[in-house]
Amino acid sequence: KKVDAQKALLLNIPGLMFFVLVSGYMGLLVYAKYALCDPIKSGKIDKPDQILPFFVVDTFGDWRGFSGLFIASVFSGCLSSISSGVNAMAAVVLKNMIPEMIFTDSTRTKIGKGLAIFFGLASLCFAFACEHLEAIVPLALSIEGILGGPIMALFALGMLTKRTTKLGATVGYFSGLAFQS
Q1: In whole angstroms, what is the distance from residue 13 CA to residue 8 CA?
Q2: How far apart are CA 181 and CA 23, in angstroms?
Q3: Are 146 and 179 spatial neighbours (Cβ–Cβ below 8 Å)?
Q4: What is the pTM of this model?
Q5: How many CA atoms lie within 13 A of 81 on its CB side?
């Protein structure tokens, strides 16, 4: 299983590199187009999160259906990521927090579906709450910065040591969260 995980990580690298390069190139294109005319200051858009859809509509507005195709692909990618995340969270909670020996398989299936519905509704509530935020990207980066360090330390602990315990990993993780500056 360790070899399969390593293969999966290595196979993920080219796709991740492509995604990062395309994202960076898109940012450079948007910056180059609006370097001398800021659409936020000119009042064409309200929030920085609207810059990429505005760029697509502004640049490809004459191409019939292209703007809709772009928006549909963005929504498709988001929905795919959300559904896999919701199912993953439900599976992790079901596997790690609900004992297998207490419930039958059919009951565990129902609990898993209930957890998926719960996490889906929680995601939906978070999406409505994000509507009232100034910009979502800085918030997401802040949350990632807060949680990323202790999670990276937790993964390093698991990869580099054989003598760690659940208690030690849990205490280390929460200590890392508590003592961040």
Answers
A1: 9
A2: 30
A3: no
A4: 0.58
A5: 6
